[in-house]
DNA sequence: GGCATCATGTAAATCGTTACATGATTGC
DNA sequence: GCAATCATGTAACGATTTACATGATGCC
């Protein structure tokens, strides 16, 4: 099983929201806050073809347009794989190295899994963030003074604060969603 | 002029703090909060050789150790290039797509540039973040309600809050540094 | 008729990941 | 003597970036 890139999941998630062409997807990346994905044709078209080769999406369909747009739509296997990705248990390393991927997952939860799974996601995220923030604070207490450069120290503090901000967000998000049920 | 990767600058910066071997550098990445850099030999040793080929560092020196450690130290051209990277004007795209690289730069400012340049850096960063946060808030006001998924909306808010946290950090960092002079 | 946009593609280069591999040295 | 660690490397692979390229369509 080949690894699946963040970009591929992002494309799959957008296609699950509504079928569209590579060009449409490029525009999404270019004009919305998802812009930290590249909108270059050199990344998107090959990624779409990889998804198609894997049997997760198909580009055969309403192709007979005036413009020869190739509208992709997800297949059942694609939806299955996507949901599997969405509900995977959150590990320490995900929080440490792939927080952006976790946020991408979170954004796509609605509409693909039940609300309960979303709350589980937030619980796991909160636990992971909380534990890591504590670890960072401990490290700072022990070795922070030993960082020669003051800007180095400040940069470290920025890292901690950034994780704390995510933690606070996760907490308030859970409260907001819980209030509804 | 070939592009220089984040990893290469990180290695160069650490070598400017003190000369060390590839193995030492790997340990730094493995055990400190710089761990989001990979500590795999497959990335670090080739990067060191690229830096050496560019004439920025040299590994010739106290090699005749018991263990055949190869201790690298920076050359004048390396220091020049590094400082140039440190003091480059911060553009909108840096804030949007390369905030982590900006924080890396900031961490290495002390010891390589005068304090005044550090304050300039923070001013530019603050301005860039402030402008982008405003842009995001405006986008949210206009289109936020149109995001079908509630988790999508929350994810977006998380993005805004994350940039706000960075902005707050930049402001307090500047105040702290200004108080000293 | 000409220009901007629509729409898709390919090719080269490069960096990083993963996995494999090897020898020396220290400590028990 | 043996295991763990020290220390460096290589080789295959894959994804993304950058640049180049092409044709169709709508609009003025």
Report on this model:
The structure is a homodimer of 181-residue chains. The longest helix of chain A is centred in the C-terminal third of the chain and has 31 residues. Helices cover 69% and strands 4% of the residues of chain A. The first copy, chain A, is globular and about 60 Å long. Chain A has a 3-stranded antiparallel sheet. With 181 residues, chain A is mainly alpha-helical. The relative contact order of chain A is 0.10. The mean pLDDT of chain A is 93. The two termini of chain A are 38 Å apart. Chain A has 2 domains: 79 residues, Arc Repressor Mutant, subunit A (Orthogonal Bundle), CATH 1.10.10.10; 94 residues. The first copy, chain A, is built from 8 helices and 3 strands; from the N terminus they run H-E-H-H-E-E-H-H-H-H-H. In chain A, helix 1 packs across helix 4 and helix 2 packs across helix 3. Chains A and B meet through helix 6, helix 7 and helix 8 of A and helix 6, helix 7 and helix 8 of B. Chain A binds a DNA duplex (28 and 28 nucleotides) through helix 2 and helix 3.
The mean pLDDT of chain A is 93
> Which stretches of chain A are poorly predicted, pLDDT < 50 over at least 5 residues?
none
Overall shape of chain A: it is globular
The number of domains of chain A is 2
Structural class of chain A: mainly alpha
Beta-strand residue percentage of chain A: under 5%
């Amino acid at each position: 099983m080949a690894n699946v890139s963040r970009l591929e999941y992002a494309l799959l998630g957008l296609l699950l929201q509504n079928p569209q062409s590579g060009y449409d997807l490029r525009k999404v990346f270019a004009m919305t806050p998802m812009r930290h994905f590249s909108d270059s044709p050199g990344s998107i078209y090959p990624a779409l073809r990889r998804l198609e080769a894997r049997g997760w999406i198909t580009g055969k369909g309403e192709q007979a347009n005036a413009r020869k747009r190739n509208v992709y739509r997800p297949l059942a296997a694609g939806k299955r794989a996507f949901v599997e990705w969405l509900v995977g248990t959150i590990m320490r390393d995900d929080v440490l190295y792939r927080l952006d991927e976790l946020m991408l997952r979170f954004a796509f939860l609605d509409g693909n899994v039940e609300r309960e799974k979303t709350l589980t996601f937030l619980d796991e995220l909160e636990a992971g963030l909380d534990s890591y923030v504590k670890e960072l604070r401990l490290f700072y207490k022990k070795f922070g003074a030993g960082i020669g450069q003051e800007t180095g120290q400040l940069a470290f503090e920025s890292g901690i604060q950034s994780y704390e901000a995510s933690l606070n967000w996760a907490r308030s998000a859970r409260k907001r969603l819980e209030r509804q049920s």
